[in-house]
UniProtKB/TrEMBL annotation:
It comes from Sphingorhabdus buctiana. Its EC number is 3.1.2.20. Residues 10-122 form the HotDog ACOT-type domain. PROSITE patterns: HOTDOG_ACOT. This is Acyl-CoA thioesterase. GO terms for molecular function: fatty acyl-CoA hydrolase activity. It is an enzyme of class 3 (hydrolase). Belongs to the acyl coenzyme A hydrolase family.
Length: 132
């Protein structure tokens, strides 16, 4: 049985802030979706590791939606928060916002729900620490 976590906004301070490089663009002049996915996984892993108080692994991406393209000069902010908590796993909601035009415009470019599992020394699932 998983425990829902309520009243936790995705926004707040960004977990990760990066600037894509020219090598990260595709033939259409947009940033590769795989590059964005990697940044989301890194940010989600940071949050999951804090919650688990140790190593974690990504085990699923339940939903991923690309809303708008990321452009070469965008500054990308990745936000992440706990959405659901189970015995050994947790679902982390991740949102990516691009800042454009020298900070004049913010555009939500993608979001997704990533599931992470806490790992023991043998790389097997272990219970999450108590929230008490």
């Amino acid at each position: 049985m998983t425990q829902a976590v309520h009243n936790l906004p995705v926004r707040g301070d960004p977990i990760l802030r990066v600037v894509p490089r020219p090598a990260d663009i595709n033939a259409n002049g947009h940033i590769f979706g795989g590059w964005v996915l990697a940044q989301m996984d890194i940010a989600g892993g940071i949050v999951a590791g804090r919650i688990a108080e140790g190593p974690c692994a990504t085990v699923a991406i339940e939903k991923m939606e690309f809303i708008a393209p990321i452009l070469l000069r965008d500054i990308i902010s990745v936000y992440a928060s706990l959405e659901r908590r189970g015995r050994t796993s947790m679902a982390i909601r991740i949102e990516v916002v691009a800042t454009r035009d020298r900070g004049e415009q913010e555009v939500k470019v993608t979001e997704g729900l990533f599931t992470f599992v806490a790992l023991d020394e043998q790389h097997r699932p272990r219970p999450l620490p108590s929230t008490d």
